Amino acid sequence: MSAFKLILDWMSILAIPLIIFAFLGYGYIKKVKIYEVFVEGAKEGFDVGVKIIPYLVAMLVAIAMFRASGALYVLTWVLSPVTNFIGMPSEMLPMAFMRPLSGSGSLGVMTELMQTHGVDSLIGFMASTMYGSTETTFYVVAVYFGSVNIYKTRYALPAGLLADAAGLITAVYVCRLVF
Amino acid sequence: MLNHIWLWMIILSILIAGGSDLYSELTREPSKPAVKTEQQVQAENSGDQEKAGKQKPAGRNLNKETKMGQITSAAMDAAGLAVKISIGLIGIMALWLGIMRVAEHSGAINVLAKIVQPITKRLFPGIPSEHPAVGAMVMNIAANMMGLSNAATPLGLKAMEEMDKLNPKKGEATDDMITFLVINTSAITIPATAIAIRASMGSANPQQIIVPGIMAATVATIVGVTTVKTIQYFANKKKKTEKA
User: Fold this and answer.
1) Which tens digits make up the pLDDT trace of B139-197?
2) Could you tell me the residue range of the domain that residue A9 belongs to?
3) Chain A window 146-175: which residues touch B at a Cβ cutoff of 8 Å?
4) Which of B13, B23, B115, B177 to mutate to test the interface with A (most CBs of A within 10 A)?
5) What pTM does this model have?
6) Are residues B117 and B47 in the same domain?
7) Which residue segment(s) compose the domain that B144 sits in?
8) B192, B147 in Cβ contact below 8 A?
């Protein structure tokens, strides 16, 4: 396992330099005017950053209010019979709701769960698996669609959340099996 | 859809915060601070701002103690944070957009696109198989898999930009964009952050979550893509019957 970890660590350190090297090197071989073209492309970075501001403000404000109001705990209370039925510990519900909403929020929930129940407990194991297995769907929808000024997202969010739910339930079952 | 979810998140927060404040006010022991608040409220109601202002430091800090105050400051902070995140993204965005532009000019993106063509042709029927969007998507998914979120977001945004060039209705998401987004949010990845935190908290086996995590993400991706494709299938069918 430690050899595996070593490979993983090196992979993540080397990936970005290698990608940059490969692209710039290939560009040089193909006689692209690298500096000029780079700067021309990089100019767009500012526009993208500014474009996503309104979308991100809308999304983050709603999420922050939702978190601060304690709505998460009301939802947990309402849904705990359902999750008990599918064999999900009710401690995992805040994690399951927080994960698609907020990256830093779910990181906090995960750390707290691992502190109270132990890192290598079933709950700690489930929490970290859940954290690692999906993305912050609301954030991705806001940023990705915001960058191209799309406000009609159609069925993107429900589909993304359904996928998240499937992933979270799978995490519960796989963790129960492995643990 | 997002309209409803967004609206209800905010309305629910306000209602729940109001409800819990009301409950805690009603059940609170009538002690000294409570009297002060009443006076304060009365003072405010009567329009005597000077008196209200004077008594505030002596009373409770309603901004911190009540849920209503908390959601207000949370909303303000989040608005500021959103700008900070966006501004912080500009530098990395510029770096990757520059490199991607070089890759585009040299044809490296097309080479990448050709390699994955058999898969992307089926997943994204609306994108011509050698379109630059395909190359950016592949780079984004690869960066996600390696857990390089700093690189993944700019590359994903580049892919969205390229896909938007093919978008007939600006401002509305295309089927291919949604497919890409769903694959992206259920990203199959090596959970580097979670492993690092487990290790720092003294786990005996921090990497234990890799396999369960990948399995969960795989199921999420399969469910997501199936959902999206089913919706697209029925929508297209409807369109065809309407035409005929």
Assistant:
1) 898 888 877 877 899 999 999 999 999 999 999 999 999 999 999 988 788 888 888 88
2) 1-42
3) 147-160, 162-164, 166-168, 170-171, 174-175
4) B13
5) 0.86
6) no
7) 107-243
8) yes
